[in-house]
Amino acid sequence: MKRLLWIVAAALLAAPPAFAKVKVVSSIQDFASIAQNVGGDRVEVFALAKGYQDPHFVDPKPSFVLKLSDADVLIVAGLELEIGYLPPLIDQSRNDKIRPGAPGYLDASIGCDILEKPTGEVTRAMGDVHPFGNPHYWLDPDNGRVIARAIAAKLTQLDPGGAATYKSNLAALEASLAEGEKRWDAQLGPYAGTQVVTYHNSWPNFLKRFKLVAAGYIEPKPGIPPSPAHTVELINMMLEKKIPVILMEPYFDAKTPKAVAEKTGATLVTFIPSVGGVPAAKDYVALFDYDVKLLSEALAAKKGAKP
Amino acid sequence: MKRTHSLVRIPWQLAAAGLWLVTAGALAQEPAASPTPTPTSSEAAAPPAPVEAPAPAPAYPASPPPGASGGPGQTSNYFNPSISVIGNFLGVAGHNPVENLPAASLRESEVALQAIVDPYGRADFFLSFSEQGVEVEEGFLTLTSLPWKLLAKVGRMRVSFGKINTLHLHVLPWPDSPLPLVNLLGGEEGWKGTGVSVARLLPLPGDTFSEVTLQVFDGNSEGLFSAPNRGNLAYNGHYRIFKDLTEAVNVDLGVSYGAGPNDTATKSDLEWTTLGGADLTLRWKPLQTGNYHAFILRGEYIHSDRREPVGDQRGYGWFVSGDYQFAKRWWVGARVEASDHADNASLRDKGQAVTLTFNPSEFSQIRTELRRRVYGGTNVTATEALFQLQFAIGAHGAHPF
Hints:
Mean pLDDT of chain A: 89
Shape of chain A: globular
Mean pLDDT of chain B: 83
Distance between the termini of chain B: 46 Å
Number of helices of chain B: 2
Order of helices and strands of chain B: HEEEEEHEEEEEEEEEEE
Largest sheet of chain A: 4 strands, parallel
Structural class of chain B: mainly beta
Number of helices of chain A: 11
Structural class of chain A: alpha/beta
Helix content of chain B: under 10%
Helix content of chain A: 40-55%
Radius of gyration of chain A: 22 Å
Strand order of the largest sheet of chain A: 2-1-3-4
Number of strands of chain A: 8
Largest interface: A-B, 60 and 65 residues
Distance between the termini of chain A: 87 Å
Shape of chain B: globular
Strand content of chain B: over 45%
Largest sheet of chain B: 16 strands, antiparallel, barrel
Oligomer: heterodimer
Number of strands of chain B: 16
């Protein structure tokens, strides 16, 4: 009898880790995907902004307060990307674990290669500029690796029992990224130096990593919708420089980019900036697989079409 | 008839005890970590936005530039609060002898100062400068580290009665306040109180947000309550439920109940005004491709029972409005409203309005409203055009919801 009690007690003591998963909330789906890869069964993840949503404009819905209120870890992109909705949600969550500076708060930008940090004066005449640098930095697999390591370290800190799991999952993810990079370099390598036009300035890290160059933007200034004068200038520039593709985020109005593509003969490619943007981009590696394939095919078609 | 309530004395002590508990609780609880200091460029009052918001847009400072030395000139003002100013210009055309607004006015310049106070709370000040003078629209301490999922505010604040009353002027979807607010909640400015507010999350199954808010205020509120004795306080309770019906559709429901001594009360004979309210907000905003289309349906009902020595005045008012976003920067809307007067329920005003709003950027907004109001007890039917220009400078505000 006593022995049975011991067994029951041992089972009860052993049981909690099985259901007490680490609750991870992230601002964008990319971090949720990486956290899921690294955390495996030990974590439960939720992303506030969906991959097909403009990450600058997220409604601070009270339902998010519930998610944050129970969270053990909050992963943010930082660099003021979430400044428009997250701060009031953190306050209302009444959850001290996930406040900036608390152990459960992880700013994924730390340690990443951040581009376009303004050096001179910054004013809103420049549009919606981010004074701490371009916040779309997760679109470089090197930064993805940094983020994955930071998430693994954070999970290990909060759940030391899972250290071995996190270590091996991280190794698997890094291996998968390394393999992916070989694939992507092979696909985009032939187009190094190619100039492209993008809608919003969402891709500097991606372009830098794959040695492509942004020649211009559909938006005259970040966050300001296209204006006729700017569009005319852009078309002339694109014709002159023979820009082959326009990359557009899925959440913008396609009207102007379509018109520009028609006028210039460039191919309009709907690029996915985040995991979940399309069902095929189901995780961080698949996101690059999807985008790289799309872009390399568009560039290959252009090259083939040229005499 | 004497109507002095025993209610009058006890709550003051209760409130004091509650405040003490709340504060003691906050200080006893060692917070998990102190929030990091604030770079000035964090955030402040909400910019003019077509969506509504709980007014105090409780902003939290951004984390310091992560590993960044790139922040332009931040360090010297590291602990300064974030500052923003929102200008609200109003031009009016048409004839209206009842609400005789000036042809042009800088109706409000709202200065917001916001920062973390210490590991236990944050402070928000909203100072409203009009052409006539300055008023502390809100100024409160929010205790964010309380136990039992409590969130407390102490100071002067917009009262959580219904939805529209909690919103600052610049985040309303119209340039003017709807009639039920004007007639039943003390005027264009609505109900503001100085006291204590405590809100608690009440978890419901199925990811439904639910929150109850209890508030105790000083018994004087301009245009609404007037306390003959210090112990005569005003009270408010609000219960809110929010549910995502689908990814794109959500519903926000609230009921409110408030009470306070009205201006017919005397030291010996307390006369109460009790207020009841219900509010509904239904939002549709697809997140998928081709977005920047949204629809918001709002409705609010307010009931006022004002006891007076000569008899009771029981009046009610309501409005229903819809706003549709048809392009990234454009909104169109309509509002229907009607309300009795609190002090004379036989007088009933009615109105209709249509609005067109353009947001050149997140930080400026141009709005036109065509409004028709029929005033009870007069034969005045006023048709007016209101032109509003709002512009925000300073720290980036949290987009209100």
